[in-house]
Design a protein that fits this description.
Blueprint (H helix, E strand, L loop, with lengths): L1 E6 L3 H10 L6 E3 L7 E8 L2 H12 L6 E3 L1 E9 L2 E9 L3 H16 L12 E7 L4 H10 L8 E3 L1 E8 L6 E9 L4 H4 L1
Catalytic activity: a 3'-end 2',3'-cyclophospho-ribonucleotide-RNA + H2O = a 3'-end 2'-phospho-ribonucleotide-RNA + H(+)
Enzyme class: hydrolase
Protein name: RNA 2',3'-cyclic phosphodiesterase
């Protein structure tokens, strides 16, 4: 089973992202129901490894926090754009959650990721777009920004590749704890 760990997005944020999806020739836009912020891609796991990962993720204790999306960007270079994304404003609590997820899955037997974490929401996988159109898209949406929204849980998703888009299914969600200030 192909798996990843991610944050889901509120409906109003997905709607705002959906408004960004257009105006770029050759772009394959991600459907709004697939918008998410990946914490860790796990790849193909069998049942036993899935049980280990599930137990490790269930042991994570992190307070809930809020984040916002901010700006747009791309992965790749001028000769080959691989993905266009909406960025996530720097938030230490998000990095902390990512680090906890990474540590948990490594303890469960998954190889370390080894890449710098760049939180984002993938909007498109363009196919040979004219670079001038990509630059124009990025410039025209550079001020994109959402309101802050609460992150109260993270989710283990399975991904089935088939048809025009991947199909994601939530396998299990893991609640974050109440922040200390809210407990008082």
């Amino acid at each position: 089973m192909r798996l990843f760990v991610a944050l889901t997005l509120p409906e109003n944020v997905r709607w705002q992202l959906r408004l960004l999806c257009g105006g770029l020739p050759g772009a394959k836009w991600v459907p709004p129901e697939n918008f998410h912020i990946t914490l860790r891609f796990l790849g193909d796991l069998d049942g036993r490894d899935l049980d280990y990962v599930d137990a490790a993720l269930a042991g994570i204790r992190v307070p809930s926090f809020s984040i916002r999306l901010n700006g747009v960007g791309h992965f790749g270079n001028a000769s080959r754009i691989r993905a266009i994304w909406a960025g996530v404003e720097k938030e230490p609590a998000l990095q902390h959650l990512h680090d906890k997820v990474e540590s948990a899955v490594v303890r469960a037997g998954i190889e370390p990721d080894g890449q710098k974490y760049t939180p984002h929401v993938t909007l498109s996988y363009p196919k040979d777009p004219p670079i001038s159109k990509v630059q124009q898209f990025l410039a025209s949406h550079s001020l994109f920004r959402t309101e802050r929204f609460e992150v109260t849980h993270f989710t283990l998703f399975s991904s089935f590749i088939g048809g025009e888009h991947a199909i994601y299914s939530a396998e299990r969600s893991y609640a974050l704890s109440m922040p200390m200030a809210a407990v008082r």
